[in-house]
Amino acid sequence: MGTQAEFDQMIKSGELIESRREMTPEYLRELKHTLIVSGDTELISAPAYYLAAKRAPSINAF
């Protein structure tokens, strides 16, 4: 995994962080946490979307 200085330089120069070897351990931990929270949010909101989708008109109605 990359060092904090290498990571900071990549961020400052606008590069994308795409592989594990470019990530610091802290960045990887926070990325995983963000993805878990995002997934939980999607799951918890699914019932509301389901009810709205049941009442939505068909795309064949146009």
Question: Can you offer a commentary on this structure?
Answer:
The structure is a single chain. By secondary structure, this protein is mostly helical. It contains two helices and no strands. The chain has one domain.
Give the class from helix and strand content and strand pairing: mainly alpha
Q: What percent of residues are in strands?
A: under 5%
DSSP helix count?
2
The whole-number mean of residue pLDDT values reads: 89
Largest sheet: none
Low-pLDDT sequence parts: none
Number of E strands: 0
Rg value = 20 Å
Number of domains: 1
Order of helices and strands: HH
What coarse outline follows from CA principal-axis ratios? elongated
Q: Which range best describes the helical content: under 10%, 10-25%, 25-40%, 40-55%, 55-70% or over 70%?
A: 55-70%
N-to-C CA distance: 53 Å
Q: What is this structure's SSE topology?
A:
Layout: H1 4-12, H2 25-55
List the main descriptive attributes of the protein structure presented here.
62 residues; elongated; 2 helices; mainly alpha; 65% helix
Describe this structure in a few short sentences.
It is built from 2 helices and no strands.
